[in-house]
């Protein structure tokens, strides 16, 4: 009821203020930063983890190799003349090993179905699982009954495996041909594997596919369609067909390398790989105490429209998509320190991309603008062009650069492309590893990806503000009652599990290696992450220790087969999966619960840590992921 004591003017003013508050809240929601809380990858050169990718970039590794013989015999197809019928100009590219190896049993697929499964689908399943584990999110706790809505957004475009399957005789077609190779099922299979019911879609915009997938994931999170989003891209190269096509179009580099922004740039080198990131709204990530690796401030997608040709890039469209992303991020151009370029290394594409960047960022130089050059990098010089997964390679590299406050060198850069007036632009090409440019504000980077279908994408990343972790987050909660007595020596429980004994042994080895390389990781954080951030399987091992040194020794003893009093093991085939929360509350012995865990009981780990430890000491850490037991499923 309106207050009768207020005049109509005052009531109108109050109504306007309330409406403005609603508008402001809606505006804040639409622009909320999206937190990157987990990353996984497979790229050439053995870059099977984000850490391995960063080490590759630090060492300035050229990951390009000859075409593997399990793809095609390159001598049968190579020719120096790109126009030679049925031939290709390149002998090399960026490839992953073990094309057909896959842990079908882990993902509950029969051997028959696994044989028909596109290696891209296999890769997407692994990357999704690892991205969640690296985020400290237990994949089996994401079902709708757990109150979680999870979206899956997957960039994928190659049809090599599909073509191979269709080339077989009709008698060889089985019930799994369509589901094993359709792009729509690649995303749907990830959702099915996790048991999640949020948005699930495959995205094919060619070389910009994975960055468009991230853009759509961010939109979905801001629209409250999901609470967690998995976004990424995959690409596998199985046949020579596309390479022959690209040779005929004079797009392919003769030596299989991307010589981005160099005067010798004459085409791109093909590559395969994949990457996946786990995303949350920043407010949700803070509330959950997640490891926030960077935030996506804004993104944009557009199309070239009618340009000089269907596959020809457009300076105007590229300039526009970058400006739109900056506007969505509420940043000015001079606040961006680094651009991870699309950078394919083509004679046509490189000058157009640099021209678009100059049009956006060149205006921000001068007395009142940019205080340092905009650094321009391209991960394709290391890995090649991963096509549908290329945007993920650039995004993960940019996140790593922000984290380490360093910008890796561009390879194959001897003389900058003379078609660009470099002296007139505020751009810097790194030839060695550079410290992050000195600037006010937080480290900020842009990432571009442009598809040869004309679809362009750009997003803006920024370092997270440490002060955003508020005192109200769960990591600052006080311990509940029934903790161990203050006078007792505190024991910590590290639970490890796997679906097979061999996988459990490999997991123990991974932890031993990781903790040896990172001896300063807080023990309580390691145990907390391994508890709440992992799914727990039949074959189990619990280590009950009081120090990090004791934990490392216990892991070594387990691997050596030596007895260690810290080790409690269970290898049963039919675990007791009942949950007994009341018993957790009534017990004060962590050793008791270590024993219950190894016997197969489902433990409420969040409740466990609230009751046994001050949660302010529990922070998620990046720990080893599940060791897939891959077997050969190929022709």
Structure characterization notes:
The protein is an alpha/beta fold and 635 residues long. The chain is built from 20 helices and 20 strands. Helix 12 links the parallel strand 10 and strand 11. It starts with 7 loop residues before the first helix and ends with a strand. The relative contact order is 0.13.
**Rough shape?**
globular
Overall residue-averaged pLDDT value: 90
Beta-strand level of the residues, as a percent range?
15-25%
The helix tally amounts to 20
Topology (elements, then pairings):
Elements: H1 8-30, E1 34-42, H2 50-58, E2 65-66, E3 92-93, E4 101-102, H3 111-116, H4 119-134, E5 150-155, H5 160-166, H6 177-181, H7 183-194, E6 200-203, H8 209-222, E7 228-235, H9 241-248, E8 273-281, H10 282-287, E9 294-303, H11 315-329, E10 338-340, H12 349-361, E11 374-377, H13 380-383, H14 390-404, E12 406-407, E13 427-428, E14 434-435, E15 444-450, E16 455-462, E17 492-498, H15 501-517, H16 523-532, E18 539-545, H17 548-560, E19 567-570, H18 581-586, H19 590-598, H20 605-612, E20 631-632
Parallel strand pairs: 5-6, 5-7, 10-11, 10-15, 11-13
Antiparallel strand pairs: 1-8, 1-9, 2-3, 4-20, 7-8, 9-16, 12-14, 15-16, 17-18, 18-19
Helix pairs in contact: 4-7, 11-12, 15-17
